[in-house]
Amino acid sequence: RLDLNTSGLLIFTNDGWLAHQVTNPTARADHRVLKTYRARVAKLTDAALQQLRQGVELGGGLGRSRPATVEVDREERSSSWVRLTLCEGKNRQVRRMLHAAGSGVSGLGRVAVGGRTLERLTVGSWRLLQDDEVREHLGYEPRRLPADSTSHKPRSPRPEPPPEPVQSVATGVRVNKALRASHSRREADRLVATGRVKVNGK
């Protein structure tokens, strides 16, 4: 997940174990999935960068951040782009870390989860991950449901809806106008043809 003012890479899954492995900040070191962010900040001193690398107090009862990899990506006249790689993902953690180091954040995006990066994905686009990518980049063995799993059984057919009450309108023209407000033209014709909507005098 990402907060409202952060853009970047998201991974969607209906596998609860995978979601737990990717998001759990207390996982064992060999099971942690690293997340990499790119942030635009005010210029940071060497001391501030070292603070971020060693860990800072996050506030809000979240304790101290774990050691992180922090590198300056690009320098601008009054700001810098820094790349932070974390082994945890607490609430608004990157912003809290940079605030603790004395810097605001004017832009923030997640560029990688594990070894999976944005590549050439544009804003709003998506693609499916292959099993080998999940193994290699997220360190997780995809699970397969058994063939007789209830998840694969066809659902029972939906019951037919009860007949719609007969409505009465003044003219055929009004039938169309009244129905178009809530039905397609084809549906309106079907309702008239089956007698569910009647025209006065017919």
* Elements, N to C (H/E): EHEHEEHEEHEHHE
Quaternary organization:
single chain
Indicate the structural class: alpha/beta
**What's the N-to-C terminus distance?**
59 Å
| Biggest beta sheet attributes | 6 strands, mixed
Mean pLDDT: 77
Percentage of residues in helical conformation: 25-40%
Which geometry do the CA atoms define? elongated
- Count up the helices: 6
Share of residues in strands: 15-25%
Structure description:
This protein is an alpha/beta fold. 25% of the residues lie in helices and 21% in strands. The protein has helices at residues 16-23, 46-54, 93-100, 131-138, 172-180, 185-193; strands spanning 7-8, 35-42, 69-75, 79-86, 105-113, 116-117, 167-169, 197-199. Strand 5 (105-113) and strand 6 (116-117) form a beta hairpin. Helix 5 (172-180) crosses helix 6 (185-193). The longest helix has 9 residues, at 46-54. It is elongated. The N and C termini lie far apart (59 Å).
Q: Secondary-structure map with pairings?
A:
Elements lengths: L6 E2 L7 H8 L11 E8 L3 H9 L14 E7 L3 E8 L6 H8 L4 E9 L2 E2 L13 H8 L28 E3 L2 H9 L4 H9 L3 E3 L3
Parallel strand pairs: 1-5, 7-8
Antiparallel strand pairs: 2-4, 2-5, 3-4, 5-6
